[in-house]
Specification:
Mean pLDDT: 78
Distance between the termini: 109 Å
Largest sheet: 4 strands, mixed
Number of strands: 17
Structural class: mainly alpha
Strand content: 5-15%
Strand order of the largest sheet: 14-15-17-16
């Protein structure tokens, strides 16, 4: 399209050529740079190679010179000391400790032999203190370093270390010996050189394989003998014939040399590696010897390994003696020398590097153990750990595993030296070991955890989980087991007996009696105490008592630390402690003597934060914590016979005092905790509440024991009345709960028993009322359907089936709505009437009665003597598909009854009520399950004969509908015999299966349904016995006066009506059985509502009935007032049609009737009746269905009165009933009264329909017949 510009192609070609030239030059430059770099690298490699070869050649020449010089030695050691020093210099120049060849190892052996030998020399000790250097007689050319002497004495044998006294070569000799000793240490700590490898520069095998081959380890030789000789300070001692100044000089220089060996920092590190290898080899041989007999070669190697360990172990103690001596004299002679309290001292080195070798003490033979015992290494090691000057260094220098290995070795060493020491020494060392264990394990706590978390994610074979990656030597499972066996001794029975030996041997009186607040009576708790505690002072005021308190506190802290460190062993530790002879009883009585006041006042003051103290600052709190943790398990194992009859290990008075203390202690902790502080953001000004500090752990342990004592007291009382109550009055507390006060809610949640039952019942009802109000306020606008009633149809003959079909899938929110029931009769027609709550109550009672019937096999009863309900273990056989859903439905139905305040006459077993409350059931609940089984288990527990003769195994035999089944309590339980050792476990396994496992699914379904209506937090404030009272009411006679106070009257009755007065008089004369029958007659429950009849809903009402066929009409013929709607929370009124002109009159009449029903006089009642009849012309009333023809005809007149069956105006029935006249005509009133109808009731509305009987006798006769014959129930 566009013409090409002239010269464009030529220009493009030039640009392409320039680019190609540039790329070529760049490539050439890179090639040149690469070539230069390669040449430079080649030159460096060549230089390094030449250097290496030069050094190798130099070392080869040095080796040749050493061989030549060593070969010139005659067969007898006659060379001079300086000649030997020259040999050492040559040897150290070519010897490589990290990579020795076979020939170099042989030269090392020869060098050690030379140094161990003595040389013949001509020396004049009198004129020259150090005169070595004269050549040997056979040496043709004297050494240039030889020192001429002026006086030639006869030849004598002189060891090499005499050079330390030479004026010229002393420093060189000391420096050379120091290096040579280090070389020997590395040589003997590792492996032997492999003879199959030639001298080609390759290193021998130094890497350790997975399993140690003990045949390759260095076990003995001149190197070890050299160390034993030159690390012994006694080697450097001169004869007494030598001048004292020379002897002192030799000793000082020898000590300086040995201390330099320690100061080098490599001594214990080098021998630690040797101990690791040889200890593992010995452990492997010990494991093999347990399985089979060792062959002779293995037995020989094992002895040689023990000899090596004993030799190096002796070297450590030789240096330790030098270190101690130098530390004691450092201020006088050598102030620059190391002292005992430095971090590099021998005992610290032994502790950190030797005793931290895994299973080191297990590898020691008897000689090494005796050597350790004589050297007091255990005492010194524990002192170094406890010394504040050493402690931090020791802890920081060891890893987590090494700390664990150190504790295991200390425990093992204490155990193996126990017999050799006296009791006093063992007691002191035991206390030190306890303190050391606390220090070491506390140091480990920040690295370990019993559960896996994001922080603690690395598995540990002993500690379970740690936050440190384990890069150290991994032990085999067998070795881990051995390490754990070392640690197990710390919580063994023998060690615990020794730890608490002083406490167990004290003579302490019982701590029961008296009041917690009576501090003046504390002297009684101190009398009779052993000599460690005087009879006139408490443990904290007597010096010996203070020491004992510290000892017991430290022992308890030790076991608390063990349980925190080894959570998997917590149960074993607690069992060990609580079964020590009289341990818990002695510990409790000892605690009662602590403090200047005694009576546990120090703990109560700490709980209340009195003064500057608090639980965090109370030094003796660990004693209480151990006691509570042990008791929490111990109370599970003791039965009522131990506690009540035998009163072991505590008397009942002690248990009363103990429960009172724990109750007050826990309450003080809750009442005096710090309130969370408010935080203000300075930038935004926002105010927030800081997180509240958690409760101390001791609170939860003490509370656990407290609740166990409380539950036992509820089951079988041993405490005085009102022993547990601490809150009076309760109105203020209830107000605080309503205001969501933190402390009040915590007390209600954790210690509800300190609040009176009536207050807790009111709080429970407040919970329900508040939720109903919240539902109305929060959901009315958003979800109106949630407040609508649920209508269900129930066939009379199929209550259970229709209830399951209609309500089985109803949500929890739907259950809390109003549920209306319409019954369908046998012919399929709906029954008349509108459900205002009554039909649902009847349906619920019928449904629960059918469901709880044992014939249905959903629930069954305990033994025949108790008849307590619990889920049937065989329900899944009879109801394989719908069983769990039925249990869930029954749970919801029971929850609905509690939600609406209805009482259900059902008696659940105590263990099942505990399950509903979310509590774990144990052996003590077996009595409520099966008395016979409980007695058999107690017989087994206390059986003194051979348990195996009973022929029991860990299995149970059951007969289920004719089919025999064997239930194994443990895996393979039918093959595990019950013995004396495991019978406690068998008892608990049987109890767990009977109470928990066999009804686990049924109980879970029932409880899930129940808690969907009633949350656990609402009912956890009750005990099982109290929960039964909430469900079924109190099994006591009701208060007639209380019922009278909250009774409503209808159709003309009022409180002072003669018939009503007769009724209350008759009820007061009734027996307990008759009173319960009357209450069941009118409310369908024989028990009064909790808290009185003011909580009965609907309220109890009495209606006057005149006509036997028109029982639901007023005295004027109008419909009776509709009872209050059940579950609606408000009363629905129903008006009859009337003209506007009579509205005011009817309002006044209604008001008068209301006043009359509340107990006003007869005049107001009479005026009310007459007013209704005087206004009859303007308010037509329907005639009663049963009226006579005369009354019907007279009703056409606007001024006619409604009449009853006797022709008496209905309005005048009130007047006649007041005067005791039931009707007109012939016959006495008594005879007419006897012909009157029986009293009837509407249990749905708690309504009694009472005719106006003429006399008290007639009323009592008719009422007694009605309530005892179970007739007369009907639905209005």
């Amino acid at each position: 399209m566009f013409p090409a510009r002239p010269g464009a192609d030529k220009k493009a070609a030039l640009l392409a050529q320039a680019k190609a030239d540039r790329l070529a030059r760049s490539a050439q430059k890179k090639t040149t740079e690469l070539s230069v770099a390669q040449e430079s690298a080649a030159r460096r490699i060549q230089h390094c190679w030449r250097t290496v070869q030069s050094r190798r050649a130099t070392k080869d020449r040095l080796r040749d010179d050493w061989d030549l010089l060593a070969d010139t030695l005659p067969s007898s050691p006659t060379l001079g000391l300086v000649h030997n020093l020259r040999l050492m210099f040559l040897f150290l120049r070519f010897y490589d400790p990290s990579n020795p060849t076979l020939q170099d190892t042989q030269r090392l052996t020869a060098m050690c032999k030379i140094l161990l030998s003595k040389v013949l020399t001509a020396a004049s000790i009198e004129t020259t203190p150090s005169t070595p250097g004269s050549p040997s007689a056979k040496n043709t050319s004297p050494s240039p370093e030889a020192i001429p002497t002026t006086t030639i004495k006869p030849s004598m044998q002189v060891p090499f270390h005499m050079l330390l006294l030479h004026a010229r070569f002393a420093e060189q000799a000391a420096a050379t010996l120091l290096v040579f000793i280090q070389v020997c240490l590395k040589a003997i700590a590792g492996f032997q050189a492999d003879a199959s490898i030639d001298n080609d520069g390759k290193s021998p095998k130094t890497a350790k394989s997975k399993f140690v081959d003990y045949q390759e380890l260095y076990l003995s030789g001149p190197e070890l003998r050299f160390l034993l000789a030159y690390l012994d300070i006694n080697t450097y001692k001169l004869p007494e014939s030598v001048a004292l100044a020379i002897r002192i000089t030799m000793q000082d220089r020898a000590k300086a040399l040995l201390l330099k060996v320690l100061n080098s920092g490599q001594f214990y590190k080098d021998i630690r590696s040797g101990f690791l290898l040889r200890t593992e080899a010995i452990i492997q041989l010990q494991e093999r010897s347990q399985k089979t007999t060792l062959i002779p070669a293995e037995a020989t190697k094992k002895r040689m390994l023990h000899l090596w360990i004993a030799g190096i172990w002796r070297c450590c103690f030789l240096l330790q003696s030098v270190d101690k001596d130098a530390g004691g004299k450092a201020s006088k002679h050598q102030p620059d020398l190391i002292n005992l309290h430095s971090d590099d001292s021998t005992i610290v080195g032994i502790t950190c590097h030797i005793l931290s070798v895994p299973l080191f003490v297990n590898a020691l033979d008897e000689f090494s153990i005796q050597l350790a015992s004589k050297s007091n290494v255990l005492r010194d090691a524990m002192d170094s750990i406890l010394d504040p000057r050493h402690q931090q260094f020791v802890l920081n220098s060891m890893s987590l595993n090494n700390t664990l290995y150190l504790l295991g070795n200390l425990a093992k060493l204490f155990r193996v030296t126990l017999i050799e020491n006296t009791d006093a020494v063992n007691a002191g060392q035991k206390n030190r070991l306890v303190d050391c264990a606390v220090v070491l394990l506390t140091h480990c706590h920040k690295y370990v955890s019993g559960t896996q978390t994001t922080e603690f994610r690395h598995y540990h074979a002993i500690f379970s989980w740690t936050n440190i990656s384990q890069k150290e030597q991994q032990l085999s499972p067998a070795q881990v087991k051995l390490v754990f066996s070392q640690l197990e001794y710390l919580w063994s029975r023998d060690f615990a007996m020794g730890t608490f030996n002083t406490l167990l041997n004290l003579a302490l009186p019982a701590s029961g009696g008296g009041s917690l607040n009576d501090a003046s009576s504390n002297t009684s708790t101190s009398t009779g105490v052993h000599s460690r505690i005087t009879s006139t002072s408490s443990a904290n005021t007597d010096p010996q008592g203070v020491l004992l308190a510290i000892e017991v506190q430290q022992a308890c802290l030790f076991y608390m630390t063990l349980m925190k460190s080894f959570e998997s062993q917590k149960s074993r530790i607690l069992v060990t402690l609580m079964y020590l002879p009289s341990f818990l009883a002695q510990l409790w009585r000892f605690m009662a003597t602590l403090g200047p006041k005694g009576k546990m006042q120090i703990y109560l003051e700490a709980a209340s934060g009195a003064g500057t103290k608090g639980l965090d600052h109370e030094p003796l709190i660990a004693i209480l914590q151990v006691f509570c943790e042990c008791c929490a398990r111990f109370f599970i194992t003791i039965d009522d016979d131990d506690m009540y009859e035998q009163q072991k290990p505590w008397e009942l008075s002690e248990l009363i005092f103990m429960s009172g203390f724990l109750n007050q202690f826990c309450f003080s902790v809750l009442s005096h905790q710090e309130e969370p502080k408010t935080l203000t953001d300075l930038a935004t000004g926002a105010v927030s509440m800081a997180t509240a500090s958690p409760l101390p752990p001791i609170f939860y342990h003490a509370r656990q024991v407290l609740l166990q004592l409380y539950e036992r007291d509820c089951r079988r009382a041993f405490c005085p009345p009102n022993h547990w109550l601490l809150l009076h009055p309760t109105k203020k507390f209830i107000l605080k709960v309503a205001q969501k006060d933190r402390t009040a809610l915590q007390i209600l949640e954790t210690m509800p028993h300190v609040i009176p039952f009536t207050a807790r019942l009111e709080i429970f009802r407040d919970f329900i009322r508040d939720e109903k109000q919240q539902r109305i306020q929060s959901l009315a606008l958003v979800r109106p359907d949630l407040h609508q009633s649920v209508m269900v149809k129930i066939r009379r003959g199929y209550v259970l089936e229709d209830g399951y079909q209609n309500l089985g899938q109803l949500s929890a929110s739907g259950w809390k709505n109003t549920i209306r029931v319409r019954f369908v009769n046998e012919v399929g027609a709906n029954e008349a009437g509108i459900d205002q709550g009554g039909p649902f109550k009847e349906f619920m009672e019928t449904f629960l009665e059918a469901g709880f019937s044992p014939n249905l096999n959903l629930f069954t009863t305990t033994t025949a003597s108790m008849h307590l309900m619990y889920p049937s273990p065989t329900s899944h056989y009879t109801h394989p598909r719908t069983g769990l859903e039925l249990f869930r439905l029954f749970g919801k139905m029971l929850g609905k009854a509690m939600y609406e305040g209805l009482l259900v006459e059902v008696k659940f077993a105590g263990f099942f009520l505990s399950k509903i409350l979310g509590r774990t059931v144990f052996l003590d609940e077996m009595r409520s399950f099966d008395e016979e089984v409980f007695k058999n288990l107690m017989f087994l527990k206390k059986y003194e004969g051979d348990v195996e003769d009973l022929g029991l195994t860990f299995s149970l035999d059951e007969d289920v509908f004719g089919t025999h089944r064997t239930i194994e309590l443990l895996r393979g339980g039918k093959d595990i015999e019950v013995t004396k050792e495991n019978r406690i476990n068998y008892i608990f396994q049987v109890s767990d299966y009977r109470l928990n496992k066999q009804i686990q699914e049924q109980s879970r379904a029932f409880i899930d349904g129940f808690r969907s209506i009633i949350p656990l937090s609402w009912i956890s404030i009750f005990s099982p016995q109290e929960l039964h009272r909430v469900i079924a009411g109190d099994d006591v006679d009701f208060d007639v006066q209380d019922l009278r106070t909250y009774t409503e009257y209808q159709n003309g009755y009022f409180d002072q009506h003669p018939v009503i007065r007769n009724l209350w008089a008759v009820l007061n004369e009734f027996s307990s059985e008759e009173k319960r029958a009357f209450l069941k007659f009118v409310t369908s429950c024989s028990k009064p509502p909790l808290g009185g009849f003011k909580h009965l809903y609907p309220p109890f009402a009495i209606r006057l009935v005149l006509n036997p066929t028109a029982s639901d009409t007023n005295h004027d013929g109008s419909p009776a007032p509709t009872p209050r709607q059940f579950g609606s929370g408000a009363q629905r009124t129903q008006r009859t049609p009337s003209s506007s002109s009579t509205t005011q009159t009817q309002t006044q009449t209604s008001s008068s009737a209301s006043n009359g029903s509340s107990g006003s006089g007869f005049g107001s009642r009479l005026r009310s009746a007459l007013n209704r009849n005087s206004n009859g012309s303007s308010s037509p009333s329907p005639s009663p269905s049963g009226a006579s023809s005369s009354s019907s005809s007279s009703s056409s007149s606007p001024f006619a009165l409604t009449t009853d069956e006797h022709g008496t105006p209905a309005a005048m029935g009130v007047v006649k009933s007041f005067f005791g006249v039931l009707g007109s005509g012939s016959g006495s009133s008594e005879s007419v009264g006897k012909k009157a109808r029986l009293p009837t009731s509407s249990t749905c509305f708690n309504l009694l329909k009472l005719p106006p009987f003429s006399s008290k006798a007639v009323l009592k006769e008719k009422l007694h017949y009605a309530i005892m014959s179970n007739t007369g129930f009907e639905l209005s």
